[in-house]
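Hello forum,

I keep getting stuck at the same step: I have a sequence, I want structure tokens, and every attempt I make locally crashes halfway through. Rather than fight my setup again tonight, could one of you with a working pipeline run this one for me? It's a single chain of 287 residues.
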Amino acid sequence: MNAKSAETLNDLIGVYIAEQCTVIIDAEDRLRAGEDVVHVTRVAVRRLRSTIRVFAALFDVPRAGALEDELVWWAGLLGEVRDLDILTTRLLELIDGLPPEVVMGPVAATIQAELGALRKEAADVVIATMDGERYRQLIETIRSWQHDVPFADGAPIAATKVNRYLKRADKKVVKRLAAGVSAAKDGDPGAEELFHSARKSGKRHRYAVEAAAPVLGDKADKVISSRKDLQDVLGEHQDSQVSAAFLRDLGARLGVREGHNGFTYGVLYGQEQSSTTRLLKELEPFL
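Reply #2:
Ran it on my machine without issues. Output:
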């Protein structure tokens, strides 16, 4: 069924779920071949999980809960690889932006070697996992959802009623974002977790609007764009925090070794630590 012709909410969401299931299933051969599909696969997993979460009332509860648990597990393994790719690219770009006289020692080569080794380990785990029974069961479950989503029994709901779910998802974003900003202004260390929660809520809202786009029409594009902008702002901040923690650890370990100098790691760490001040300013349009 084409999503544009969907008459019921089950039809509308079923099409979106089938699309994500197809991406996940088709990714296996490409992952095994070493192709650069970790990101798109992980996004499809997140979209599927978010759909189950936002539209929870539509699904058979035990089956939806069981699939969501396994999606969290699989996304976590893919995330180990993807996060290292992001961190590597980020740090090398930061180093390129430094004046040459500030880069003391083989900083770029060291970071590439450290993260490259970690990335290989994470990628090997993904490949090995795909040979395991747990993964095979997950794929079988996804195949069943691809062709027959286990919706709960009940009278059909018109596709146009999707707005009630979208409003609820939107309110969660606004509430969590405001809580994060308030905590950050008060110097509360819990602000980071609140920002992370707001980012996840923003993704769920964005993906829900994607699913509802055939019903919403042109106005879906504006919402999706806004939520993506928020995701980018919060994601940039989160990446800077992860980067700062890595630099602190690496600088402490290598800065005292012969042939290395901790100065450049400290400079980079300082740049990353200033991200919270920038974040509050960049979040103003979303409040």
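The mean pLDDT is 94. If your local run keeps crashing, start a new thread with the error log.
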